[in-house]
Specification:
alpha/beta, 7-stranded antiparallel sheet, 18 helices, about 35% helix, binds 6-O-phosphono-alpha-D-glucopyranose, aminotransferase, transaminase activity, cytoplasm, SIS_dom_sf
Length: about 600
Amino acid sequence: MCGIVAYVGPKDAAPILLEGLQRLEYRGYDSAGLAVVNSRSLKTRKVKGRVADLAAAVPAKFKGGIGIGHTRWATHGAPSDVNAHPHLDQEQRIAVVHNGIIENADELRRRLEGDGVKFESETDSEVLSHLIGRMVKETDSLREAVLRALKSVVGTYGIAVVDAQRPGEIVVARNGSPIVLGLGEKEMFAASDVAALIRYTRQVVHLEDGELAVIKADGFNTFTSDARETAKEPFTVDWDAGHYDNGGYEHYLLKEISEQPDTVARTLRGRIDDRFHIAHLGGLNMDARETRSFRRVKIIGCGSAYYSGQIGAQLIEELARIPADAEPASEFRYRSPVVEPDTLYVAISQSGETYDTLAAVQELKRKGGRVLGIVNTVGSAIARETDGGIYLHAGPEVSVASTKAFTSTAVAFALLALHLGRVRDLSPADGRRICDGLRRLPEQIKEILTLEDQIRELAKKYADAPGMMFVGRVRGYPVAREGAQKLKEISYVHAEAYPASELKHGPLALISPELPTVAVVPDDELLDKNLTTLGEIRARHGRILMVGHRTSEAADDCIVVPRNEVELDPILLTIPLQLFAYHAAVALGRDVDRPRNLAKSVTVE
Ligand code: G6P
C-alpha cells in the first residue's frame, strides 16, 4: 500500500526521506510527496508519478532537519499532484501523511466545510490535517491534538504528523496500517516498513494498533489512545540494506526467482530431524498432545498466499490425513465463520501486514481460535498476533508479485504437514521419504532455473495470445492458479485457472487456437486423466504448453522439471510458471516489479 517515512535529527531530512521512499515504492507508486520544517514554516513538494519524479522536483537546497514523506497508491481521488500527500491544514502549519482509509471522511469533510474549511484535494486523508490543525490551537501539545483528532475518526490509519511551530518532534500513530520506529544515534526515523529504515538503523520498535508515538532526535515515547505511556523493547532486524538491492539483476522479480535455491534452503535449515524423520518447528509453541488434538486445519491468506495455502491444505491432508482447506482471508472474515476449538487455523502472509489477513486473525482470536502464522517478516503484525508459527527466512521480497515467499510458504507447509503427520499415522519410512525429498528441493530448483532460455522463448511465443487458460488436477490445481495469477499480475494477459476435470463443464467452450492452455501435468496417479484432458483441448484446436515430468505428443510444447516425491512436486512445478510469467511480461514491455494498479502490501480492506 502507501509508504510513509519520517525523520528528525541533525541532518537534512529531504535526501533521507527520498531514499526511504524509493525503498517503499513497491508499496504504492502513483504519486509521492514530502514536507520539511524550516524556520517554523513548512516546505512541501508533491508530484503525480514515481519517487524519481519527486526527487527531480525537490531543489538541491531543501533545508530542514525534520520531515515526512509519502508514496501513494490511490484509494480516494485519482493520482494527481494535489491528491498526493502530505496534506496541510489551512494555516499551513500541520502536515500529515496517511496510509489506510478514513471511513467517515465524507461526514467529517461536510462538517469541516460547514465551518468554512476549504479542502484542496479529493482525498479522505485531508480531513486529518484540518482536524489536527484545529485541535493544535486548542491545546499546546501536538500529541494531544492528534489524539483528540483521531477520536472523531473511524477507519484505518498509519500517520505521521509535523507541526511547523514545533520543529523538534513528529507524532506517528497506528490503527490497522503499520508504523515502525527506527532508533538512530541522536536521530529518529519512522516508516510504514523497515525497508525504509534499514540503511540507517536496524534497531526498530513496532507500534501496536491504537498506539501513538512522539519521536524526537534524542528518543521516543509511546502512548495508548487514552494517553497512558507504554513501554516498548527495541528489536534488531536481521535483514540488512544489501538484502534490498537488486543484486545486478534487471528486475527484483528475476532476482527473487533466482534466489530460490537459497531461500528454500533457509526455510529448511535446522528444521529436519533425521533421527525420527520429523520436522523441528520450535515456533509453533505446541506440545505433542495438543498437536494431535486438531481434527481440522483451516488456512487463510490473500492472493498468492491463499494459493500457497491450497498447496498447504493438500499436503496436510495427504501427509497428516487431517481434513484441511484454504480460503481467502477477506472472505473468511466477513462471513461470520464458525470457529471450532479442535480446528487449527493457519494465517499466511509474506508481509505479515495484509489487512484482511490480520483482521481475520483478530476475529479468530476474539472467538478463541488457535492461530498459527506462516510469515516472512519477523516482528510484523500477523507474527505478533498469532499464537506461534513458522518464519520463512526468505529475506525481503521487493517485487510486487510474490515468488520466493510463495515457494518458501509451500515448503513451510510441507514441514508442518510432516510434523502433524508424524505425531499421527505417517510412518517413519514415509517421514524419511519426505525429509529426503525436502532436502533435494534446492538442487532441483537450481536445475529448473537452467531452463530459463527455453522458457524465455516459449514466453515470447505465447505472450501475444489475448488470454491463456491454466489447468491442473488435485495437486496441480493450486499450481495452475498461481501460474495464472503470476501471468495476469505482471503481464496483464488475461489468465484463468480451472481444475482440469471442470473444463468440460463450461470453460471448454472458450478453447480455440487463440486461447492457449498451460497444463500442469505431474507424473502422479492422475497422469492418464490429465492426458485425456489434453486430448479434449487438442480436439478443439487449442494450443498446449505442458509443464510436467515428461514430454508428450499431446502438447505443442513441454517444460520438463525434475521429479521429487509426488506430494512435494507442486513446489517445483510452480517455478517454471514464475519464469514464464516474468519473460512474458518482459516481452510485452511491462513494468515487471511494479505492475499497474497493484501494491505489495495491501494494508487497507
Ligand atoms: C497483494 C500482492 C500479492 C500478495 C498479497 C498477499 O495483493 O499484490 O502479490 O500475494 O498481497 O500479501 P501477503 O504479504 O499477505 O503475503
